[in-house]
Structure formats: structure tokens, C-alpha cells
Design goal:
Elements: E1 9-10, E2 15-20, E3 23-28, H1 30-36, E4 39-43, E5 50-51, E6 56-62, E7 66-70, E8 75-80, H2 83-86, H3 90-93, E9 101-105, H4 117-125
Antiparallel strand pairs: 1-2, 2-3, 3-9, 4-6, 5-8, 6-7, 8-9
């Protein structure tokens, strides 16, 4: 059973969000990294790019498949996790401490539309 962390919010496309003030850390869930298998590459946006909730911002490639990443929130990318350029497997090692990008949210209320841990667990059980 994959882990779900209380206090994070989740998109139905399996990204998680951790809110710190008006900045959202975005990564992929433990469920998603298990489904993908060994991650070999992460395609990330550039700092300064605008992302829109529900639209793709990059991709994760594994030995099995490539999967688009969808932003759970809208705003400006203020940082990307450069460690992933050389060590994409960090997502497999700990999906919840390995964020992909930080977004300065243009509409923090979007977080309220995301799933809480209990709702996300149910979603994963039904997939």
C-alpha cells in the first residue's frame, strides 16, 4: 500500500501540494512513483514560467513509461529541484520529501479544490 501524508493536498492526477505561505511545493505521490517504477528523467519547467492548474508543466520518465505532470495550482515557478537533473531516482526513494517545483500561487484558493489525504486514499484504492 502506498503512503498518503496528512496535511498535503492531492490532485486526481497524483501530484501533491505542500503550502508554505503563498508558495506551493509540488511533487508526485508515492502511489504515482510506484506505478511508474524506476524514474530515470524529470522534465521540469523553467524558473519564471507560468503554470496553470490542471495543465501540464513537465513529465516524468521511468523505465516503463513517460507520464505528463499536471500543475495542481496556478502561478509562477520560483524554483525547481535541480537535484532531480542528476538524481531523478530521489522521487522513488521518498516521493513526499522530493518536490519538483515551487510555485508562487496566483490563486491560493485553488488548493481548497484539491483532495485531502482521506479522499486521495479512496481515489487510489479505486484505481
Amino acid at each position: 500500500m502506498s503512503k498518503v501524508i496528512e496535511g498535503l493536498r492531492y490532485a486526481e492526477s497524483h501530484e501533491w501540494v505542500k503550502v508554505e505561505g503563498d508558495v506551493a511545493l509540488v511533487g508526485i505521490s508515492d502511489y504515482a512513483q510506484h506505478a511508474l517504477g524506476d524514474i530515470v528523467y524529470v522534465d521540469m519547467p523553467e524558473v519564471g514560467d507560468e503554470v496553470t492548474a490542471g495543465e501540464d508543466f513537465g513529465a516524468v520518465e521511468s523505465v516503463k513509461a513517460a507520464s505528463d505532470l499536471f500543475s495542481p495550482v496556478s502561478g509562477e515557478v520560483v524554483e525547481i529541484n535541480e537535484e532531480l537533473e542528476d538524481s531523478p531516482e530521489k522521487i522513488n526513494e521518498d516521493a513526499y520529501s522530493t518536490w519538483i517545483m515551487k510555485v508562487k500561487m496566483s490563486n491560493p484558493a485553488e488548493v481548497d479544490a484539491l483532495l485531502d489525504a482521506a479522499a486521495y486514499e479512496k481515489l487510489c484504492e479505486n484505481e
